[in-house]
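Lines hold sequence, tokenised fold; shown next:
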Amino acid sequence: MRKRKIAAIALGIILVGGGAAAYVASPTVHAGQSGEAPEFGRLGAYNIGTSVKKFALADRTKITTWGAISGNLTDADRELSVRFWYPAKTSDSKTAKYAHIMRPPGKDPVTVSANGVAVPDATALVDEKYPLVLMSHGFGGWDTQFSNLAEQIASHGYIVASINHADMPIDGIRSFLLSFGNVLVDRSLDQRQILMQILADAQSGSQPYAAQIDTDNVGLIGYSMGGYGAIASAGAFYDFANDPMANIPAAARTAMEEASQKPLPVKSLVTFAPWGGQPDSRAWTADSIAAIDKPVLVISGNQDDVVNYEQGVKWLFENMTGSNRYMLVYREARHNIVGNEFDLDADSDFTTAEFLKEPVWRSDRLNAINQHFVTAFLDMTLKGDASKADYLNVPTVDSNDSKWPIGFGEQLNGKTAGDEQSDHWKGFQRRWAVGLEMHHMKKKQ
């Protein structure tokens, strides 16, 4: 009988819990958007438009097979497209769909796509100026690979310009070496020439898209090889002592050195899994990394075996001593910590999944967290919103150690931590800030 009584009490508790579960399953406090996303991982107040513009890049060269042997470069016309997202007047419900054809070496082409919320060629809002954020993808990537991040940033009152670097296609070892060699040369030069043209258009008012740009507040975001270029664009001088940098032809090396003498006019830098810090192919010295004096947000997986988290990414972060910097770490994540959630066929080739997916983390979860921290960081550094520092200066380095006590049976229904939950990562739901680390190092005085 006693066992039955205990069971009855337990059943009563379960039934109470069941009633609570029904309450939790009702619409969350974040109407119309995933309640799982942290506070700034959701779309902002602005409707947005999107458009594409081509840019001609003067005085550029190309490494060819013969050039790699002889050290002579081929003059090359370089024209790249840039995808813009911007606050807009929108009445059209026809939103963008971003499609791209991937061509894995030796495999059939694969089309990947993502649905957007931006309206193509919508009329831009011109009642105020908005900070500009330039985005640069990784080796073999494309301009809309991170369209979800770009749209989310734009919806919070930014203009985002994403470069399509048009890396040379790869069909074998030789083409890989040529393509990668050109990426080493091109990434920072592309960023420099395109950003300066965008700013010139903004100053002259010669282009409709540029009328919105606040030229005094510019941010730069780079992933992997885009991060490599962004570090140089932000003020770090290349070191050509190590391979593969030592194999860059002399003429290209000269162009890179001359460009690096003039850091781009950016006020903040975000690097996702940046290439170039790993000991076997280090692109900078500690002194050159220390020359970066802008605030930096580094985002990485602690199992990144492409850019070497322990000896590469951490080395970069620790040696950016001229900067007030943060490093968000995803535990058990490898290299693909940013990018749209692409649905792949069940029988799709593993090469495609390996390029786009993470083995442990869900892409949509990564996206929401990235959007949260990048938005807070940009608001703090480009809009001067000091209150956003509270979202980066978290109470515990390890998110698992954060605390948010509640009363028995209390239901939060997706509420995110605010000032009253000072021992929890601000902007995250209770129990949902897990698997993360946030490191902070101040500028060396």
About this structure: Residues 345 and 353 are 10 Å apart (CA to CA). The longest strand covers residues 74-89.
